[in-house]
Structure formats: C-alpha cells, structure tokens
Write a structure and sequence with these properties.
The structure is a single chain. This protein is mostly helical. The chain has one domain. Helices cover 49% and strands 0% of the residues. It is built from 3 helices and no strands. It is elongated and about 55 Å long.
C-alpha cells in the first residue's frame, strides 16, 4: 500500500515538474518569473523595497534598493 502511494506521488510530482518545464519553454522569453520584492511595482508603490530591510527596520543604501544595511547588535 505504501509503495503504491509513493509511486503515484512520484508520478504526480514528475508530471507537475514536466508541466512547469514545458510552460517555461513555450513562453516567449522562457525564464522563471522574477519574484524579488524590490522588483515588484506594487510593493515599490507602498514603499517596500526589500523584505530584509523591512524586517530589520533599516533603510537600504545600495543601488538596487535591497539589503544594504548593516544590523547593529548594540
């Protein structure tokens, strides 16, 4: 019973990965979507440029607007 479940699970995972690969190949630019917070227009409108800097409460200082802060442990 367990072996049958593992085989079915492996087949489903393999089919889903194949589906994702095919969808990437068929897209015009053929690349993964950019999921970085700093590159999202809606997040920038709200003033959120980097999740790490938002969590630590610092302002990013590098040119890409992300994670240029040093965290003080004082």
């Amino acid at each position: 019973m367990l072996l049958k479940l593992l085989i079915i699970s492996a087949i489903l995972v393999g089919l889903s990965m194949a589906g994702l690969a095919i969808s990437i190949l068929l897209k015009p630019k053929g690349q993964f979507p950019d999921t970085h917070v700093g590159h999202n227009k809606e997040m920038r409108k709200r003033g959120i440029t980097c999740a790490k800097s938002t969590d630590t409460g610092c302002n990013p200082i590098d040119s890409e607007g992300c994670c240029g802060c040093a965290v003080n442990s004082d």
